[in-house]
Amino acid sequence: MGQLLFLRSGWPPSRISFTMGRKMRAGVRIMTVQVTPLGDRAIVLKQDDAAGAAGWKQMADLAWALEQQGEAWIIEIVPAYETVTVVYDSALLWREIEIGPEADSLLPYQLAERRLRLLIKNGRTAAERDVQGRRIDLPTYYGGEYGPDLEESAARAGMTASRFIEEHSKAEYTVAMIGFMPGFPYLSGLPEKLEQPRKPVPRAVVPAGSVGIAGKQTGVYPIATPGGWQIIGYTPIAMFNKERKDPVLLRAGDRIRFIPISGGEGSI
User: What CATH number should be reported for the domain whose range is 16-128?
Assistant: First the structure.
């Protein structure tokens, strides 16, 4: 089983470091995180070491461990590649936390940082999390009016459009983070041969559901918005719907496959 370790490194006025680790057979894997206030209602937990491609996974594990404790003063927990942002209600925090005689000398973020230390120390470990995530298939129309950049993307990759579709759709992707806008999944796992540059001039409007590639990532636009990714297809599955109980369809750790369907060039 895993274990979170917790060490204090002093108290600079705007940044604090603590260390978490997971006990393993070969020793203890340590991750140092810095805490920085973000205005008067949020704290950013940022990796202090280079975690490489695994960084998003460590941040997702940290966010999960905090979410499991159901603290009323925490409004939202937002994991990213190298950070977790914790948005909080300072009034609720003041009412819930035991602060003792130091109350008048502590700022809200200092109270939040103190409480976060305890939550991390006492929280559930990453080993208890379903690390596989959910498996979700996204039916996708490739090319044609749905994927106006497919042909050029395939040419840059030195392959036909059909081969490009085949390579893109046979890979399994992992949601590394949700960002940019509500419900936008940044998906890791794009084959290197399919990597694409961003468009030199972004489109004024990219339709909701558009499947795009930029650099080493692929993703799906949840709403119509300006964007500079290379658009290769479209999925009718809504990434974001404010009417759903959980408006955002995907979450970090989910495993994604794009399934070609007829209607574009993707009728394979």
Answer: 3.30.1360.40
pLDDT tens-digit series, residues 157-179:
999 999 999 999 999 999 988 98
- Residue 184: which of 154, 134, 232, 229 has the closest Cα? 229
Report DSSP letters for 108-158, one per residue.
Answer: HHHHHHHHHHHHHHHSPPGGGS-TT--EEEEEEEESTTT-TTHHHHHHHTT
Is the per-residue pLDDT at 221 higher than 70?
A: yes
Q: Residues 236, 240, 246, CA angle at the centre, nearest 5°?
A: 125
Q: Tell me the per-residue pLDDT of 5-63, one tens digit each, with 9 for 90 and over.
A: 333 333 343 444 445 544 444 444 456 678 888 888 899 988 766 555 567 777 888 88
Nearest to 235 by CA among 213, 219, 215, 252: 219
Measured CA to CA, the distance from residue 75 to residue 88 in angstroms comes to 5
Stated pTM of the model: 0.71
Return the CATH superfamily for domain 135-260.
Answer: Cyclophilin-like (2.40.100.10)
Q: Where does the chain hold its CATH 3.30.1360.40 domain(s)?
A: 16-128
Tell me the HSE value of 173 on the side-chain side, using a 13 A CA sphere.
31
Helices 55-67/108-122 angle, 10° precision: 100
Residues of the chain with CATH 2.40.100.10: 135-260
- Rounded Cα gap, residues 65 and 58, in angstroms: 11
